[in-house]
Amino acid sequence: LARSWQQADAEQQQAALDAVRSVFQSYVMIAALKAAIAHYGDDPAWRTVRPPLVELDDAQQRELIQGLTQVGFSMPGLPSRPAGDA
User: Is residue 57 a part of any domain in this protein?
Assistant: First the structure.
């Protein structure tokens, strides 16, 4: 959107970004962002947060990913964890 704010579909792009932001802000932001990276990057270690923050629990992460899926969110280009890495 920063590169295309003058294009005809800029308002649609902003609406899509607002929908994604709305899903994330239903949770503690840092924990939610890290949970999304863990999911889309297939690397559970990304869920870890430092105190005083607390990870999203499994139900919250499922709800987050479901909400992100509903608004068409994806993270193209995010490398997945190589097979065999733990």
Answer: yes
pLDDT digits (tens, 9 = 90+) for 2-58: 667 778 888 998 999 999 999 999 999 999 999 999 999 999 999 999 999 999 999
Secondary structure of the chain in HEC code, one letter for each residue: CCCCCCCCCHHHHHHHHHHHHHHHCCCCHHHHHHHHHHHHCCCHHHHCCCCCCCCCCHHHHHHHHHHHHHCCCCCCCCCCCCCCCC
Measured N-to-C along each axis, helices 10-24 and 58-70 cross at an angle, to the nearest 10 degrees, of: 170
Query: Within a domain: residue 84?
Result: no
**Over the Cα atoms of the chain, what is R_g?**
15
Q: Is residue 27 situated within a structural domain?
A: yes
Give the count of domains, the chain: 1
List the domain range (segments joined by +) for residue 32: 15-70
